[in-house]
Amino acid sequence: MKKISQYIFLLLTLVLLLKNKTQAQEIFMGVPEQFKQYSNSTHLEKMYVHTDKNFYVAGELLWFKIYNVDGILYQPVDLSKIAYLEILDKDNKPVMQTKVPLTKGKGNGSFFLPVSITSGNYKLRAYTNWMKNFSAAFYFEKPVTIVNTLKTLTVPAADTTKYYQVAFFPEGGNLVKDITSKVAFQITDPSGKGIACKGMVLSEKNDTLLSFQSFKFGMGHFMFTPASTQPAKAVITLANGRTIVQNLPAVYEQGYVMQLVEETAGSIKVTVTSQSAPSQPVYLFACTRQTMQIAEKQTITNGVATFLIDKTKLAEGVSTLTVFNERQQPVCERLYFKKPQQVLAVAASSNAAAYGNRKRVALAVNTQHANAQTGSPANLSVAVYRLDSLQTVDPNSVLSYLWLTSELTGNIESPGWYLTTDNEEVKEAADNLLLVHGWRKFDWDHVFNDKRPAFEFVPEFDGHIINCQIKGNDPNATLNAATEAWLSIPGIPLQFYNSKASERGRIYFDVRDYYGQNEIIIQTDNPDSNYHLEVLNPFSEKYNEAILPAFSLSDVAQQSLNEQSIGMQVLNTYEANKISQFTLPAIDTTPFYGKPTKVYKLDDYTRFTTMEEVLREYVPEVAIRRFGGQLHLKVFDYDSHDFYPTDPLILLDGVKVDNNILLGYDPLKVNRLEVVTNKYIKGEFNYQGIVNFTTYHGDMESLKLDSKAVILDYEGLQLKRNFYSPVYKTEQQASSRLPDFRNLLFWEPDVQTDASGNATVEFYTSDMKGKYVAVLQGIDEAGYAGSYYFTFDVTGK
Predict the structure, then answer these.
(1) How far apart are CA 485 and CA 502, in angstroms?
(2) Which domain holds residue 276?
(3) Which of 113, 398, 503, 537 has the fewest CB atoms found within 10 Å of its own CB?
(4) pLDDT exceeding 90 applies to what percent of the chain?
């Protein structure tokens, strides 16, 4: 899995190769300006999704809040206006997909989990159209578990072919003979969770060289000086008595070793050791989130070169430190983490520690910058749900994801723990984490032959872009690049878009304010039967390499599963109408051409049986002329006091039709006619007037289009579903005999604290006793992110 640093290395390597290698220092110090130009041309987005919980049963709603931020500053970014969310199964097959509008980097929505879904572990992933230009490793992903209690639950048998995984990671990249290296390691069980272990390193003659043990989350490290290039091996003993034997990485006769040590005086010492490069220069390059931080040169003396780095010169978060040799070849790399101070301190308290059933819960929320004395306004999402053997507190948060998880590879256990304090235990564990999850072995042949990402996908900064491709039935056929295309979404409001094909036959329609599922119609002016038009999949077809853990349920979870299933069925039975209410978006229903010159309601006039009679009898702005044996519509131009020489844009329920189709249409099905007599420019198109006919239901009743027209159902943006939470303000409401078995008491994706950082929310408990957790996550406009959770009890009446 490749992360953003590999794109950085690509630019750096290309720059170094293009310069004169005899001017090594000058070349290297010229990199920051080149790097700055690259950064300015590549805007990155990073996305986090807060879900109401992580365990669901089929028939429930999965609620989510999206935070989209700038990939460098972590501030909410208003570049993309659409987010794509998917639920993928273990084979990366999408089982649910949706598009959600974003406003200033925020959006929210829901998935209704169908009763047809299969029990298992799934991935929830999210991205923007612009993010599709990069690796799928940049997409947001999180695991969720869904159980279908309405089907016979068959948990797959444990896969006995999967064993414990052990991996070793030399600091900097490689082991070199006679040079001491720090070697990190990790051992995980079949589910991918780190486990404790002890071990020994043996030589090729089975002599014990050293012993080691894991420190935290199955990770640890030891210092190792290989005496030969013969492979050493590790013998690892687990807590259950099992023994694993595995070779350490290969040892090289010559090379470079890198070692990073934190000094007590606020500096970092990076030592580069190489016995094969006496008196040769080496270069250290440090970058953080696509921003150059440090570029320094030292000379290897007596086999060692030392860099002292002032930690204040490094940005907060994960930095990549790379060492280059005198030929400007990367020879070592490692990561360093500087705990962020850009933290939003979130706090909340309830009006009681315990509650009865159907009682009011009031939360007082406060947000402020960490270590500050005054509040800071922020936008939060809040979830309150019951804790049991199935539902636990999510160890991930928007803070830990942005600053840590998204910068590393693989699954990170309890990432928030690394952001708690600065004590020595956390520092050592964090260093092990960076060596294990940030380590990569160089594949520079791939990097040298690669180029900057080709930006095939444009940012959707206005609305959703429907992407089409003209394809030839004959691969040798030549496409007419001047092909014009029109897309219509019949109905009210009128939605009509036009575009032209590129040289590659790509057609883009920038569709705005299209919500829900409807029928779209796409037409082109290309009559050649050797071509056909396809609407391309708007969702990404690139996938991450991460593998979901095997699905399993413990026997002790059966009671919790039964209670959650009953709660789902009760809610869907008694409150189906309340959980299926949506907020209609505020959409401008004015036609794209604005106010028409003249409007005709045909029922106000004598109804004729042909469209030609209608236009001739009482629509003076439109004339019918015969050319080449066919009838044409012409719109009157008041400026020239004559009719336009070319045909107008003719629409029927927003669908472009030609003269013959329009004049052959039954006027008794038409309710309204609007005429625009001015010239109208829409993109690259210049229309000599517009004539728009609207039927009674806006559904093009009985309209027959050209056989080459593409007509298909297409899902637009998701309509926002309203979260249902019953209110028990009065005794009469509280004494209702309708059962209330909700385990999710509250979900609010848009809590805004005021200028003092304060906000209040309230909700009511259900009939379900137990321990509940309130989880708050959010971010402010300056990019300060934070989270908080606390628990309370519902003890019953």
Answers:
(1) 11
(2) 165-338
(3) 503
(4) 70
Nearest residue to 544 via CA among 101, 82, 88, 70: 88
The 8-class DSSP code of residue 371 comes to T
Closest-CA residue to 434 (of 186, 257, 704):
186
- 156 preceded by cis ω (within 30°)? no
Whose CA is closest to 539, among 107, 85, 101? 85
Q: Which residue in the block uniquely carries the two structure tokens 């570029």? A: 295
The Cα 281–Cα 331 span in angstroms is 13
Question: Judging by beta carbons within 10 Å of its beta carbon (0-12, 13-18, 19+), is residue 551 exposed, middle or buried?
Answer: middle
How far, in Å, CA of 773 to CA of 357, rounded?
A: 16
Closest to 8 (Cα-Cα) out of 199, 245, 292: 292
pLDDT digits (tens, 9 = 90+) for 712-735: 999 999 999 999 999 999 999 999
Q: What tokens does 448 get?
A: 């040298």
Question: Which one, of 661, 690, 688, 686, lies nearest residue 673 by Cα?
Answer: 690
| 607 assigned to some structural domain | no
* pLDDT tens-digit series, residues 350-403: 999 999 999 999 999 999 998 887 889 999 999 999 999 999 998 899 999 999
**Number of domains into which the chain is organized:** 1
Give whole-number Cα distances, 665 to 618, 621, 635, 703, in Å. Answer: 17, 20, 19, 7
Does residue 482 fall inside a structural domain? no
Label each residue of 218-250 as H, E or C. CEEEEEECCCCCCCCEEEEEECCCCEEEEECCC
3-state secondary structure 34-85: HHHHHHHHCCCEEEEEEECCCEEECCCEEEEEEEEEECCCCCECCCCCEEEE
Question: Which tokens belong to 397?
Answer: 């948060």
Decide if 567 contacts 391 (C-beta within 8 A). Answer: no
Flag whether 424 is in a domain: no
What is the Cα–Cα distance from 589 to 594, expressed in whole angstroms? 10
CATH number for the domain harbouring residue 272: 2.60.40.10
The residues near 561 (Cβ < 8 Å, ≥ 6 apart) are 57, 147, 149, 390, 553
Closest C-alpha among 722, 662, 724 to residue 691: 662
Give the tens place of pLDDT for each residue, 317-359.
999 998 988 887 889 999 999 999 999 999 999 999 999 999 9
- pTM as predicted: 0.91
CA 725 – CA 741 distance, rounded (Å): 12
Closest among 578, 784, 772 to 73, alpha carbons compared: 784
pLDDT at 481 over 70: no
Cα–Cα distance for residue pair 382/749, rounded to 1 Å: 6
DSSP assignment letter at 641 = T
Q: Could you give the maximum distance between any two Cα atoms of the chain, in Å?
A: 106
In a domain, 215, yes or no: yes
Closest to 382 measured CA to CA, from 402, 362, 401, 368: 362
Cα–Cα distance for residue pair 666/458, rounded to 1 Å: 42
Contact call for residues 190 and 163 (beta carbons, < 8 A)? yes
- Beta bridge partner(s), residue 106: 67, 103
| Other CB atoms within 10 Å distance of the CB of residue 470 | 22
In order of 72, 295, 359, 693, 768, the CA distances from 40 in angstroms are: 11, 19, 54, 48, 54
Identity of the residue numbered 661: I
pLDDT per residue over 549-608, tens digit each?
888 888 778 899 999 999 999 999 999 999 999 998 888 888 899 999 999 999 999 999
The CA distance from 404 to 418, in Å, is 9
* Angstrom distance (rounded) from CA 196 to CA 636: 84
